[in-house]
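Standup notes
- DV: blocked on the single-chain target, sequence here:
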Amino acid sequence: LAYLPTYGMVRLRLSTTGFDKNVVEKNIDKYFNELKLLAKDYLVTDIDDAMQVVLGKLLKEKNKTVSTAESCTGGYIAHLITSVPGSSKYYEGSIVSYSYNVKETLLGVQEDILNKYGAVSEQTVREMLSGLLEKLNTDYGIAVSGIMGPDGGTEDKPVGTVWMAVGDKKNHQTQKINLRFNRERNIEVTGMMALNFLRKFILAN
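- DV (later): unblocked, structure below
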C-alpha cells in the first residue's frame, strides 16, 4: 500500500506481483474492496480521477450548474473546472473579484462589511456567494477570498488564511483554512479544497 499525497487529496495505491493475471487481479480486488470500506468516510473516488472530474460527473449526474466568485485564486478554480472536456454542460462562468470595488459593484458585497471585517472574512465570502448566485443564476456556487503571500498578512490574518463559501440559493456553508506554502501552491491547494468543499456540500444536501 502506497500513500501518494497531492493538493488536497491522498491517493492510495495497491500493488502486488505474480505470474497468473487472474489470481493477481482477484487478490487485488479483495484488498481494494476492503480498503474502500475502511476509507469510506473520506473516499472521493475509487478510480483515478482528478477532483475537478469527480465534481463534474456529480454535477452532470444531477443536471446542475455551478459558477465561481474568486478573489485570491484569480480564476484558478474556473481553470480547473473548464480543464474537463464537456464542462460547458454544467459550468456557467466566474467573477474574478480581486478588488474591493469589483466585490461591491459586481457581487453586491456591502461596503460596511468590507470595512468592518475585511475582504478575507466569513462575512465577505457569504456576500460574494449570494451575489454570484444572483448574478449568474446557477444551482451552486463557490466563493473564495484569502491571502496567498508572500506578503499581505497580518497578526490576526497571516499569509495562507483563506475563507471559502459554497452553497445554493437556500443554504451556504463556510470554511476557514490556514495554509503554509508559497503563493503558487497556496492557490493550487485552495482550488482543490474549494472543489472538494462543494462536492461534499452537494452530497450532503
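- Follow-up: The two ends are 33 Å apart (CA to CA).
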